[in-house]
Design a protein that fits this description.
By secondary structure, the protein is mainly α. It has 12 helices and no strands. The chain binds iron/sulfur cluster.
Length: about 230
Amino acid sequence: MARSYVREARRRVGPKRERIRPIVERLQAEYPEATIALKFRNDLELLVSVMLSAQTTDVNVNRVTERLFRKYRTPHDYLAVPPEELENDIRATGFFRQKAKALRGTMALLLEDYGGRVPGTMDELLRLPGVARKTANVVIAERGQAQGIVVDTHVRRLSQRLGLTRQEDPVKIERDLVRLVPREYWNVFPHLLIWHGRRVCIAREPRCEVCVLNDLCPASRVEVGTFTPHARA
Ligand code: SF4
């Protein structure tokens, strides 16, 4: 894309500080049910689901955890079976050896340092083997106390297209987003972008012509001058 075109597109849509609330509000109106797709009933199941979701789909994780959570109910249960049995039970999520090792290490630390409970802060969660910032952010956000903004592949792509960040690195993207997105939206914001990214702002072929954000988006492919401002703006 030519530089002048990018500048013109950014000028057309206006500063991101003015666009962020309408962006969130329109997506909330579009996806009132936007929430995490993983299925869990308590903090431990949430943590395990998120750890298993690396490099696979949420649907796949749910399929595996439906059986897994009937068998493994406490941190002790993950340590009570031979490592190979746990590997087998999570095999379908891929990278099952690393994931089983991380799960066992995490369960051991939960029992040792946290009385078998999942801790609540970013620093504590990052101590758990196999738990990186993204996993910790998801766990914290789902418990209603977001301390950051989850950046996955959809959040990254949409934030870039919407001109909310120019960064490539997820940590730097998150830094830009937490400065921009009002704190009350930190929990829901990633879900909204993920839902929109799966349905409309698809990686290969964004459907700009039906996108509720097309007049707020510098990457819109809808021809300039043909926007229909959305009633919800
Ligand atoms: S206008 Fe197009 S590029 Fe921008 S958010 Fe919508 S679908 Fe994505």
